[in-house]
Model the fold of this input.
Amino acid sequence: MAWDAATGNGQAASVLAGSFKKVIATDISAKQLEHAIRLPNVDYVLAGETTVLPDHSVDLITVAQAIHWLDRHKFYLEVRRVAKPGAVVAVWVYGLLKTSPSIDPLIGHFYTRVVGPYWDPERRLIDEQLKTIEFPFEEIKSPPFTMTYEWTLAELEGYLNTWSATQNYIIANRENPVAKLMAEVSQVHAASRLKVHFPLFLRLGVLR
Done:
């Protein structure tokens, strides 16, 4: 059995379902769970850092793109309670995208200078690649991972608009800064599609 904490709409849980007999996916947002991916071996439960899972019942605990939002002390206590001996805990986030030498400086400036002041403080933990979070488990080294996609410029624009910092900027300034960025991107990138790479930062541990 796997427990996917802070599952959101179940993107990670739905993948885990292909490898585990049972997946318990928890989140504090009922709205997110309403839109979650439905599979016969995935149970969605409204819960935060603590659960009603039995003691020593879980083989894998995962947190995808959300460990920085959790009360980690409370969560880690729950991990130790529900984990079987030898269970694995894996937490990961993806960092700032990379695409090309001409576009990356534009996005980097946008990320740090334009919307940088509008990120929530927790974003710092992602920028630090999760290296600075407390992780009180016997750590397992892992190789680097990267997610790669081929996007249109419209898809890139749509993604940048999902950033919480972008939305906070819009609320504060009553204008969308993405439009100006995309005009700059269009000037240096003539093709209709581009490769986009997201570095994944993973902390992996085992419980004895």
Q: What stands out?
A: The helical segments are 11-16, 30-34, 72-82, 104-114, 123-127, 153-162, 164-173, 178-188. The first helix runs from residue 11 to 16. The mean pLDDT is 97.
